[in-house]
């Protein structure tokens, strides 16, 4: 009935399988998915609605990473969204980033397509598509120019 979906290697979201979820969260570790450093337009998180766990990290870093409990698992109880963040060695920094990521996920969960996160991603996708189109057109013009020069030389 539920499906776990991974985003960016550190984010997990549990939603019913039949819902459409947007592909977001492609920003760097320091930015929100919208590319902004602020979260003023996002829904606020209440600490009473959160369940936090510190678990042992994994991945590259060897023994130092495997021994420390600096991986933060944050669950939003009303929606069931779970975020796992182990982007830095600092527990406090991971807690902060996990909350930022969870705030975006909760915003998208409740607002859907009206969320600022989704709107910003759609805008980025449009810009990327326009850039690709322009590159294709430029390449085509160069190809035509080359063919024209080849015909003139004959």
Summarize, please.
With 154 residues, the protein is α+β, with helices and mostly antiparallel strands.
Question: What would you say this structure looks like, in words?
Answer:
It comes from Phrynocephalus forsythii. One of its GO terms (cellular component) is mitochondrion. Pfam families: RF-1. The structure is a single chain. A three-stranded antiparallel beta sheet has the order 3-4-5, with helices on one face. It is of the alpha+beta class and 154 residues long. 21% of the residues are buried. A hairpin with a 3-residue loop joins strand 1 and strand 2.
Give the topology, please:
Elements: E1 2-7, E2 11-16, E3 50-55, H1 62-67, E4 71-76, E5 81-85, H2 91-111, H3 116-153
Antiparallel strand pairs: 1-2, 3-4, 4-5
Total domain modules: 1
Structural category: alpha+beta
**Mind telling me the C-alpha Rg?**
22 Å
What distance separates the N and C termini? 68 Å
CATH architecture: 2-Layer Sandwich
Q: Number of DSSP strands?
A: 5
| Mean pLDDT figure | 79
Q: Please give the order of strands in the largest beta sheet.
A: 3-4-5
Compute the number of helices.
Answer: 3
Strand residues, percent: 15-25%
| Overall spatial form | elongated
CATH-derived topology: Double Stranded RNA Binding Domain
Low-confidence stretches: 1-31
What is the element string, with H for helices and E for strands?
EEEHEEHH
Largest beta-sheet details: 3 strands, antiparallel
Helix content, binned percent: 40-55%
* Text of the CATH class: Alpha Beta
Keywords:
Pep_chain_release_fac_I_sf; Prokaryotic-type class I peptide chain release factors domain-containing protein; 154 residues; 5 strands; Pep_chain_release_fac_I; alpha+beta; 3 helices; three-stranded antiparallel β-sheet; Double Stranded RNA Binding Domain; two-stranded antiparallel sheet
């Amino acid at each position: 009935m539920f499906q776990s979906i991974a985003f960016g290697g550190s984010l997990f979201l549990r939603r019913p399988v039949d819902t459409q979820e947007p592909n977001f969260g492609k920003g760097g570790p320091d930015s929100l998915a919208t590319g902004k450093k602020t979260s003023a337009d996002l829904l606020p998180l209440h600490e009473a609605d959160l369940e936090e766990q510190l678990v042992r990290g994994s991945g590259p870093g060897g023994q130092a990473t495997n021994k420390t409990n600096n991986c933060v698992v944050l669950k939003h109880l009303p929606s069931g969204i779970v975020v796992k963040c182990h982007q830095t060695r600092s527990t406090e920094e991971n807690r902060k980033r996990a909350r930022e990521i969870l705030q975006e996920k909760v915003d998208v969960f409740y607002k859907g397509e009206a969320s600022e996160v989704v709107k910003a991603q759609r805008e980025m996708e449009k810009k990327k598509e326009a850039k690709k189109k322009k590159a294709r057109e430029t390449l085509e013009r160069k190809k035509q120019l080359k063919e024209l020069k080849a015909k003139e030389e004959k």
